[in-house]
């Protein structure tokens, strides 16, 4: 799947990034996009990417690992069934687990 931008002044549609199998999308106050990508047919783990729609860059912020414990490096964290995503004014990312409503991960970036 691709994330596409529509330029309102020109009407031009442009591919921003390939995002795999996106399950949720949100933005922060500066216009950066946050997208979760779920498990694919080849078993790729769930991740959260930050996309800069101006620079057309994508950065994996968290997820992709197999560790469900707290206090582990961000890229070693494991998520399952992410269907929503929020970013607050301080840049904290809230990642709920749809399979377990009592499981809410709060990610604070360094």
Strand line-up of the largest beta sheet: 3-4-5-6
Query: How much β-strand is present in the residues?
Result: over 45%
Specify the helix fraction band: under 10%
Can you count the helices? 0
Shape call: globular
Low-confidence stretches: none
Category by helix and strand content: mainly beta
C-alpha-based Rg, rounded? 14 Å
Order of helices and strands: EEEEEEEEE
How many β-strand runs? Answer: 9
Question: Main beta sheet: strand number and arrangement?
Answer: 4 strands, antiparallel
Distance between the termini: 29 Å
Report what the structure shows.
By secondary structure, the protein is an all-beta fold. Helix content is 0%, strand content 45%. It is globular and about 45 Å long. The model has no long low-confidence stretch (mean pLDDT 83).
